[in-house]
Specification:
Structural class: alpha+beta
Radius of gyration: 19 Å
CATH topology of the largest domain: Fructose-1,6-Bisphosphatase, Chain A, domain 1
CATH architecture of the largest domain: 2-Layer Sandwich
Shape: globular
């Protein structure tokens, strides 16, 4: 049985390592495998953090050579490609991940060696470097990660599981500090990379999103393209005319991980009303973390984790945040921006 948010709080002591807390809290039958997978994730995150800190020095700014974009995938930056390889090498080396699905790959990648061993194998989904559009300006970026049990070892369709089957998720935030925020079904815990030790130590145990916040995160330069319901919602909360009598403030970084991390700590709502963000490797892992922290994840009409994916790079509107704020937003009815004129950045 999956643990409920907040279980295991007594074991969550500041200064604990991620491995120590996972060993205490994870389901007994999965501990060894999860320890190996999360050790690989930590190694990859540390490597990506190092690369980001030297991006200007190592000439890693800008688009990758022959960067190709499509309706499903954005043009890749140099660091997108490098971070993707770092993640794949680390996860393949665990021997536990039989399928990897990334924003930077057209199709899922099968790891035959994991299918040949006995025992559990997993599907790992990830956005190796979220917010990469901001890299050249040294604005915070992140890595998003989700983990599923493998039902059909190595079969690409295994990546199309709904978010309610996620067993663990995490995001890394590369900012003034490197943080790794994780959940394996026992609440949400934040770890900070101690560069003197080279290890992630617990600094934010048992994160609980406030029931309501006073901040919204959205690109409201697109206000005049929004549907009427979303405009009314934003107008009301700006003026203190919503359910919360306080006036809301806007805080928008245009880096999903950074905007979500702030929302997780302070409450409110982080959103993109367009069908822009990817269900499998962005919305589902972050939706799992939001719910484990007591929050909500919605596409404006329905729970994110209940949506059955139809294709790997499927896009949708995404609203993450405090439960009272998300429910109020949904009550306005018309909040998804179906009309997308296309924006040049």
């Amino acid at each position: 049985m999956q643990a409920q948010p907040g279980e295991g709080v007594l074991q969550a002591r500041k200064g604990s390592t991620l491995a120590a807390l996972l060993a205490q809290q994870a389901p007994t039958e999965r501990v060894e495998d999860l320890l190996i997978v999360f050790a690989a994730l930590q190694t990859a995150v540390k490597k990506i953090a190092h690369l980001l800190s030297r991006a200007g020095i190592e000439d890693l700014f800008g688009e990758a050579e022959a960067a190709a974009g499509s309706a499903d995938r954005d043009k890749a930056k140099k660091l997108d490609i490098v971070a993707n390889e770092v993640m794949k090498i680390a996860l393949e080396g665990t021997g536990r991940v039989s399928l990897m699905a990334s924003e930077e790959d057209d199709d899922p990648v099968t790891v035959q060696s994991a299918c040949q061993r006995s025992g559990n194998s997993y599907v790992a989904v990830f956005d190796p470097l979220d917010g990469s559009r901001n890299i050249d300006a040294s604005i915070p970026t992140g890595t998003i990660f989700g983990l599923y049990n493998s039902d059909k070892c190595g079969d690409p369709s295994d990546a199309l599981q709904p978010g309610n089957k996620v067993i663990a998720a995490a995001f890394a935030l590369y900012s003034s500090a490197t943080m790794l925020v994780v959940s394996w079904g026992s609440g949400v815990h934040g770890f900070t990379l101690d560069t003197t030790l080279g290890d992630f130590v617990l600094t934010h145990p048992n994160i609980k999103i406030p029931h309501r916040g006073q901040i919204y995160s959205v690109n409201d330069a697109r206000y005049f393209d929004w549907p009427e319901g979303l405009r009314r919602y934003i107008d009301d909360i700006r003026q203190g005319k919503g359910q919360n009598p306080k006036q809301y403030s806007a805080r928008y970084i245009c880096s999903l991980v950074a905007d979500f991390h702030r929302t997780l700590l302070y409450g409110g709502v982080a959103m993109n009303p367009r069908s822009h963000l990817r269900l499998i490797y962005e919305a589902n892992p972050l939706g799992f973390l939001a719910e484990q922290a007591g929050g909500m994840a919605s596409d404006g009409k329905r729970r994110i984790l209940d949506i059955q994916p139809e294709k790997l790079h499927q896009r949708l509107p995404l609203f993450l945040g405090s439960p009272d704020d998300i429910m109020e937003l949904e009550s306005y009815g018309d909040v998804q921006q179906i009309h997308n004129p296309g924006y040049t950045v």
